[in-house]
Amino acid sequence: MHRRVTRLIDEQARWARPLGEWNQRWVSAVFERTRPLKDVLNGVWLGHPVHPAVTDVPVGALTAGIVLDAAGFERAADLAIATGVAGMLASAATGAADAVDGYGRPQVQATVHASIMAGSLVACLASLGLRASSRRGLRPLAVALSLAGYAGVAAGAYVGGELTYGSGNMVDRHAWDAGGSRWRALDVDEVPEGTLVRAMAGSTPLVLYREGDAIRALDAICAHAGGPLDEGAVEDGCIRCPWHGSRFLLADGRVMRGPAVYDQPAWEVRQAEGRLEARRMPAPAD
Ligand code: FES
C-alpha cells in the first residue's frame, strides 16, 4: 500500500510540481509581509509544529458528524460538520506555513496533500449549505457530501503522514543526537573575531563564533531542514540560517524565529592545553 501510494504520487502527480511552485510564490509573498504570523502558525511559540495538533480537530469532528448522522442526531451532526470545516480552515493556514519552505519531493507531496484537502473542504462546505436548507429532500445529498469530504480527509491525512514520516518535513534534524557531556577536541585552533568558523567535534559539525572572550558554538546543521548554519549570518546575537531564515540565539541555541520550531543544540567551548574543546550544553530552560 505505502509503496503503491508513494509511486503514484512520484510518477503520476506531475501537475503538482508547477502548482506547488506557483503556490509557493504567492504564499511566500503573503508570509513575507506577515512574518510574525508565520512564526505563530509554524509553532515557534509552542516548540512544536502546530499543524499536526490542529488537524486532529477536523478528523475528530468529521468522524463525530458521520456517526451522529448515522444515529439520526441531525442538529448535533450539523454542528460537528461545521466544527470540522472550521478545523480544516485552521489546518490549511498552519499547513501552508509549514509547506511553503519545502522544495522537490516534499513540495510535491504537500501540494497533493493540500489539493485533496481542498476538495474535501469544498465537499464539506457544500454539505453544510444543504444542511442549512429547509428542504428535507436535500438531506441525503448533504450526508453523502460530508461522507465524501471525510473520505478525502482520510486520503489527504495519509499523504500528510508520508510527508512527515517518509520525507521528514518539519522533523527536528537533531532528534536522534545522543547528546552527552564529554569534552571533544575540535579540529580548529582559532576563531577570528567576526567570522563564522566550521569545526568538527568528532563526527559532529559545529559552527563557532567569537563574542569577546567567549566562543559560541552551535550544531552546524539547522534543526529545521538541515541548512548549513556556518554559511549563515550573525544578527543581534543570533545566527541566521541561509536557507529559510530561522534564527537561533548564539548563547544557548534557543530558536528566536521560525520556520524552525526546535532549538539548535548548543556547545560550550574551552581552551585546554593549547587546543579548543567543546561539549554539548543542556537544552535551554524555559
Ligand atoms: S534549513 Fe530551514 S531555516 Fe534552516
What is this entry, summarized?
The protein has about 290 residues and is α+β, with helices and mostly antiparallel strands. The protein has helices at about 1-10, 15-35, 35-40, 50-55, 55-70, 75-100, 105-130, 140-165; strands at about 185, 195-200, 205-210, 215-220, 235, 240, 245-250, 255, 265-270, 275-280.
Roughly what is the average pLDDT, rounded to an integer? 92
% residues in beta strands: 15-25%
Unreliable spans: none
Main sheet makeup: 6 strands, antiparallel
Q: What ligands does this structure carry?
A: FE2/S2 (inorganic) cluster
Biggest β-sheet: strands ordered side by side in the sheet: 1-10-9-4-3-2
- Tell me the series of helices and strands, N- to C-terminal: HHHHHHHHEEEEEEEEEE
What's the number of helices?
8
The structure class reads alpha+beta
User: Could you estimate the helical fraction of the residues in percent?
Assistant: 40-55%
Give the total of domains.
Answer: 2
Radius of gyration: 24 Å
- The count of DSSP E runs of length 2 or more, i.e. the number of strands, is 10
Identify the quaternary structure here.
single chain
* Gross morphology: elongated
